[in-house]
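hey
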């Protein structure tokens, strides 16, 4: 078989790439005697922590307390403010394609590689640990598929060691020491055994701050400077809080400028009361507020840096203990830039002893771009917003936080993030739903849209716990337990409108706290302070003490 065809190589300037047990594309190249691979291969197969800024043409790598920066066409690079250099060009471009020298990648990644010619190819090993190996009995041929009629890819010599990838009836799929993947007859191998394959490499340690108590946190929805004075009353009405999160910071514009209503008096009062203050920064409700704006902000390294520097400056100035990132406008395209922002922010937080927590939706297929797994490495705490199951834009009425929704949120999150870093968010609010049948005109307008599947026109308003109870009493309605959601439920009709409500109260909150305890999470968080009924604090204390 033509080996160029086997590797999909079209010309001599291309270099085929094998990563562990697979041939990957796009191809690399040999330049000035060095092996280069395209950035996409680095990201997808070798080390996803390398970040390419296509807007500012630079490659970044985030270490625990430093950021490595490489410019195109240079042998020099910087580690934070320190300049370093290599004897080769680290980053090359051809047209719109960016190539990175494998030697440079290897400095920061636990890989080994060998380069071969005829044709140009590189065999990269990333996956260390136990491998099935075997010895070739005598010179034999490696075929493209299992079967004597399949084309011959290469030959292996007597005593060669190969890695066994798969067993078929009479054939074994193998990886040769020079990077060919193919099949040999079962009886061509001997001494098959498990071998532990390792390489000396010290992985950087991304240290975390871990509190020695169960976190009992609440967000304080502060909309202007005057509202900061409400802290005293909020704390007087609560019990056992360890952490308060005022919504102080907003991103003013896509250049990364900060809007702040942070208050030193507030921080001092909270500290005197024995609380830590983790201030929230948001990409909505003031300043920027769309997916496109968040992408414009986060996809430029200089804009992220500007925002982080202003944020850390404000935190240090006021004496804030932690930063809570609540970015909810992250599209699929923005995911790689968002997680790079979290990495870079984590560097500054580590350097300054600031707690970093990150808010997340309940994991679903459509929000995987938030990259919880990497958050779990970089951040001190990963917070699940275990509410808004049904929200202001929902097309049908329902619970804001059913038991199964919360359970799924915790179970899916701890698959990717260590449980001792996870905080589960609970709602101190619910929604009162108003439903009226749609008119024929409304149904006609919605034809062909998702909304057309719902015959009722639905609106809702968010209510605190006590207000929600009052609404039911005023309507003279009764509550019953909705076994499906775990909420106390009520419905009534007035003036042609059907009202529905799934209460958040001790009945629904306790099972959520039990889930926190059973899964050994770091604690609980509540949205938002001032919406709770007073009896809820004793219940929370039962689970956090």
């Amino acid at each position: 078989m033509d080996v160029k065809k086997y590797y999909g190589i079209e010309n001599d300037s291309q270099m085929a790439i094998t990563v562990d047990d697979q041939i990957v594309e796009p191809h690399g190249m040999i330049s000035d005697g060095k092996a280069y691979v395209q950035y996409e291969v680095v990201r997808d197969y070798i080390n996803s922590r390398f970040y390419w800024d296509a807007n500012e043409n630079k490659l970044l790598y985030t270490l625990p307390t430093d950021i490595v920066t490489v410019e195109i066409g240079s042998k020099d690079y910087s580690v934070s403010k320190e300049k370093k250099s290599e004897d080769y060009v680290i980053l090359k471009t051809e047209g719109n394609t960016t190539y990175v020298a494998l030697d440079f990648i290897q400095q920061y990644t636990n890989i080994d590689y060998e380069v071969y010619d005829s044709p140009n190819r590189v065999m990269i090993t990333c996956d260390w640990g136990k491998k099935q190996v075997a010895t070739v009995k005598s010179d034999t041929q490696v075929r493209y598929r299992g079967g004597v009629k399949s084309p011959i890819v290469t030959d292996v010599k007597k005593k060669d060691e190969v890695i066994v990838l798969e067993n078929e009836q009479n054939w074994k799929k193998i990886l040769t020491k020079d990077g060919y993947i193919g099949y040999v007859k079962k009886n061509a191998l001997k001494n098959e055994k498990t071998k532990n394959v390792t390489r000396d490499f010290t992985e950087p340690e991304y240290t975390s701050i871990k509190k020695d108590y169960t976190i009992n946190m609440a967000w304080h929805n502060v909309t202007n400077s005057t509202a900061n004075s409400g802290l005293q009353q909020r704390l007087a009405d609560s019990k056992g809080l360890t952490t308060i999160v005022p919504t102080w910071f907003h991103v003013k514009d896509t250049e990364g400028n900060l809007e702040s209503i942070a208050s030193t008096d507030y921080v001092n009062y909270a500290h005197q009361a024995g609380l830590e203050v983790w201030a929230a920064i948001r990409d909505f409700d003031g300043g920027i507020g769309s997916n496109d704006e968040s992408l414009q902000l986060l996809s430029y390294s200089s804009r992220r840096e500007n925002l982080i520097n202003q944020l850390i400056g404000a935190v240090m100035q006021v004496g804030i203990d932690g930063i809570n990132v609540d970015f909810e406008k992250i599209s699929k395209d923005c995911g790689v830039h968002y997680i790079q922002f979290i990495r870079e922010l984590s560097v500054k937080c580590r350097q300054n002893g600031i707690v970093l927590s990150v808010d997340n939706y309940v994991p679903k297929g459509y929000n995987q771009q938030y990259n919880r797994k990497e958050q779990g490495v970089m951040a001190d705490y990963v917070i699940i917003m275990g509410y808004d199951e049904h929200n202001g834009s929902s097309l049908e009425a329902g619970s804001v936080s059913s038991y199964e929704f919360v359970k799924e949120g915790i179970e899916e999150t701890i698959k990717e993030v260590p449980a001792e870093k996870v905080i589960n968010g609970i709602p101190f609010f619910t929604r009162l739903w108003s439903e009226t049948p749609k008119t024929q005109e409304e149904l006609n307008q919605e034809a062909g849209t998702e909304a057309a599947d719902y015959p009722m026109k639905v609106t809702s308003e968010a209510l605190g716990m006590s207000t929600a109870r009052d609404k039911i009493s005023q309507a003279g309605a009764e509550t019953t337990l909705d076994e499906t959601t775990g909420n106390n439920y009520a419905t009534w009709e007035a003036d042609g409108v059907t009202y529905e409500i799934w209460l958040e109260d001790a009945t629904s909150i306790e099972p959520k706290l039990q889930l926190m305890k059973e899964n050994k999470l770091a604690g609980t968080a509540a949205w938002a302070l001032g919406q709770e009924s007073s009896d809820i604090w004793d219940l929370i204390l039962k689970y956090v003490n």
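The chain has three domains: 3-125, 129-197, 215-427+505-544. The first strand starts at residue 14 and ends at 19.
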